[in-house]
Specification:
Two copies of one chain form a homodimer. By secondary structure, the first copy, chain A, is of the alpha/beta class. In chain A, helix 1 crosses helix 4 and helix 12 crosses helix 14. The first copy, chain A, contains 14 helices and 20 strands. Chain A is globular. The first copy, chain A, is 35% helix and 23% strand. Chain A has two domains: 272 residues, Aminopeptidase; 122 residues, Alpha-Beta Plaits (2-Layer Sandwich), CATH 3.30.70.360. The interface between A and B is large, with 95 and 96 residues.
């Protein structure tokens, strides 16, 4: 592996240049911006490595599929996404989000971590194997979608109808990384999600608040009251039956969680948290609550006048973006049904629910052979052994990979706690970029044996 | 008066051209845009009529003061404002807000009604008198401020310190107009207002909702709960002591209100109201509630992601614009104090209150001599006799005119129910513009006798 490592080190600049080109192409799925162009770019990146490629239309953004045969008839499926989060608020970026910039050993730009850097680091590992050995040791398949940041609306269907094409023995997930101590983490499962927009229209037009205030319904008030009915200041979600299917963590889960570090102080300093909610202070209680409890999060609110100073208007419309993070065995459709019934039952039948996507939670067995390969090879690259995390708080379309394709799914990647995914100044550490490429090359080699 | 009326009709185009120039100069006090330029423009407009003028600085936007002596030593003070509301949402305007356009007997543009058209129509009346008679029959003074749309933050102090300069025997208010039947209305009082921004900052930065949702405080949720504590779905305002100083309408008020038309159906069709709040159906109950009850209105909400599609972010900041309309004898400072105590008492001491302005309600005696002049002269211009309204729902800085300067204040103007003040497609009817000029000329003449 020494040769491979040297190759990866010596050609790092070339790979970073490719990442810069890739990040410079905006591809914002929430706004439908640049997706086709970016899919074409990704296709070319795969073709340059001799992959057979297809751009496959879905009802949403197209999926890029690539495959290349290797010496051994074992197939590793690699999942990535080419779409990114919206860059707003723009004024908080220190350099423009779509003009990637390297400063202090880091590259900054929207999508540099989530998820574009993951793809180029993996391609870097493949370049090393191909240039040094001429061919791949096993079959590789890439599935690179364009709607991950908008809840992968069409991926489940894509996977169901393309099971054969996607056949493999194991799957590498789109992301992974190290924690605040630089310890690589193996995330064995992801929470699910149910993302909705709640909107209220109470009048035909905005009205002067001096007229409407005493006698007309106010959309912003109605939305406030409807939201308040979902969750109170004690953080308990009030939708009847919401917690019915929640599986509590198993003893094995609790053991694994107990081994993980206490991040309370880390969170406080990194995110400016003055106090945790639910009276949490840290320790195992905080760790378990962080991932094994479902959530109801307001992601955005909009109504009426939002500029500087005062405008005396009664808004006709108001809306909120709300995401529910789901734990096993909650299902997005079931939560959606219960939300509708709850709002109707509380007198808020005027609230329109727009379903913006969802997926169920899924997990991989910590004893799986592929997980062992990923964990074992990590020790050659990282300073610390990989730690197993039974479930993480984020979501992703892991359910069809685990349940439809029947694959073990391993996470590995270049993320780190200050990577600022979804936030201004998203960035990657170049040392971790190189480590991910080294780790990836090893996983491909070991998987082929 | 026949000569005057003919003059006003024959020179209408010239006055409308002046209004177009005036509206074309944006002057958005909420955004601090174009105020100095607009004040200079107004000064020139007065100087062209031989007024002695001053632009007087305040801590906010400057006040334009103008005076011209007349034959008789009686002084009429005319109050107007040169600032306008923000034009947003821009996409709902049929023609650009600062490019005034005439269509179907109406002129459209931001501020065309509130309040720029009122000033130019009054200047039109003055032109007629000056051109036909050579001088004014009485002294006229104009006070034209630039912060009316942001609660006239510095006007009260300006009036207190310039009482001598503003000395007069009567005051014409900045606006007035007809109701849905084209009946001119005499608004004898205005509600007060207390306008605040409530803001919450719960984190140092926005965070991925998969991480923060279960354990970090969410600014949007905290704002939602704090707002919900102010008013529930029954519309009762929950701030302790909020209603303490509310004076119920007197028997005379009730008599005057009973004579006014029932606008329930009018409101439904004009504003797309499907149902009134508080179980109101119409009639005297609706009329009294509309103006004699104080309000708590959410004018705007903003937090987190508000673009299309989904973004899974937990917002660090959230804020709401809230206005309280006050009735006699509520005071804005008292309401502000009670709001702070209430939020603190409810566990919402983290909510920051920014006071964006306020004023108390004030009323003029319906039996005042100047009111009679305005009402009597209206019959020569309008098809119906003017009706007396003891109090209206809107607010304005009437308190210092009534209480510091000791003036009767009469409303007269070109507004009408579909004028869309503060909303997209603000407009005036040209027939009412001309009527207001005719009425104004008569008031000046009769006041001088």
């Amino acid at each position: 592996m020494k040769q491979i490592d040297e190759y990866l080190e010596n050609n790092l600049e070339r790979s970073l240049a490719e990442l810069k080109r890739y990040v410079s192409q905006p591809s914002i799925s929430a706004q439908g911006m640049g997706l086709r162009e970016c899919a074409q770019l990704v296709r070319r990146m795969l073709e340059e490595r001799g992959f057979e490629t297809e751009i496959i239309a879905t009802e949403g953004a197209p999926v890029v599929f690539g495959s290349r045969k290797g010496n051994k008839d074992r197939t590793l499926l690699i999942y990535n996404h080419y779409d990114v989060q919206p860059p707003e608020p723009l004024e908080l970026w220190e350099s423009p989000p779509f003009e990637p910039a390297i400063r202090g050993g880091k590259m900054f730009g929207r999508g540099v971590s989530d998820d574009k850097g993951h793809l180029t680091a993996r391609l870097h590992a493949i370049d090393a194997i191909l240039d040094l050995e001429g061919e791949l040791p096993c079959n590789l398949k890439f599935i690179i979608e364009g709607e991950e940041e908008t809840a992968s609306l069409h991926l489940h269907e894509f996977i169901s109808t393309n099971k054969r094409k996607l056949q493999a023995q194991a799957c590498v997930w789109e992301f992974g990384g190290v924690d605040h101590r630089d310890v690589p983490m193996q995330y064995l499962g992801l929470r699910g999600i149910c993302y909705v927009e709640l909107s209220v229209e109470s009048l035909g037009t905005d009205v002067h608040s001096g007229l409407g205030g005493s006698i007309f319904p106010n959309a912003a008030w109605r939305l406030t009251w409807a939201l308040n009915s979902l969750k109170g200041p004690d953080e308990r979600i009030l939708i009847p039956g919401f917690y019915d299917k929640v599986k509590p963590p198993s003893p094995r889960d609790r053991d694994l969680m107990a081994k993980l570090p206490d991040l309370a102080e880390e969170y406080k300093s990194r995110y400016g948290v003055r106090e945790f909610i639910k009276g949490l202070k840290g320790g195992n209680e905080l760790k378990l609550e962080e991932v094994f409890s479902p959530t109801c999060t307001i992601c955005g609110l909009t109504s009426g006048y939002q500029g500087p100073g005062s405008k005396t208007v009664q808004p006709a419309r108001a809306s909120a973006k709300v995401d529910f993070r789901l734990v096993p065995d909650q299902e997005p459709q079931d939560i959606l049904d219960k939300l509708r019934r709850h709002l109707d039952g509380q007198g808020f039948s005027f609230v329109i629910i727009t379903y913006l996507g969802g997926e169920a939670a899924a997990r991989t067995d910590p004893e799986d052979e592929f997980i062992r390969i990923v964990v074992d090879t990590s020790t050659e690259v990282y300073d610390y052994p990989m730690e197993l995390v039974p479930l993480v708080g984020g979501s992703g379309p892991i359910h069809p990979f685990v349940h439809d394709l029947g694959l073990p799914v391993a996470t590995m990647g270049l993320s780190y706690p200050d990577t600022r995914a979804h936030a201004p100044n998203e960035n990657i550490r170049l040392d971790l970029y190189l480590k991910h490429a080294k780790h990836m090359a090893r996983v491909i080699q070991r998987f082929s044996n």
